[in-house]
């Protein structure tokens, strides 16, 4: 699981400011296309500000969860120009 977690963190760190990826896309890029829920679980445990997990959203365009609160996630995405 550590290799998968490290891959998730690496992928999420590479998401540019102002852009987002879905949990499903992050899982796919990590080599496990059916592991979107695992991606969410991994990101829920992240408190490292260098890993911008607020840039990962649901495939249906909704925000999804965020361990600092959904309102904070939306505020961060809006500040970066990635949310309407």
Question: Any key phrases for this structure?
Answer:
single chain; two-stranded parallel sheet; 4 helices; 84 residues; globular; mainly alpha; Arc Repressor Mutant, subunit A
Verbal overview:
The chain is mainly alpha-helical and 84 residues long. The chain has one domain: Winged helix-like DNA-binding domain superfamily/Winged helix DNA-binding domain (Arc Repressor Mutant, subunit A, Orthogonal Bundle). Helices cover 45% and strands 5% of the residues. The protein contains four helices and two strands, in the order αβααβα. The chain has a two-stranded parallel sheet. Helix 2 packs across helix 3. The protein starts with a helix and ends in a 5-residue tail after the last helix.
Topology (SSEs and partners):
Elements: H1 2-13, E1 21-22, H2 23-29, H3 36-44, E2 56-57, H4 70-79
Parallel strand pairs: 1-2
Helix pairs in contact: 2-3
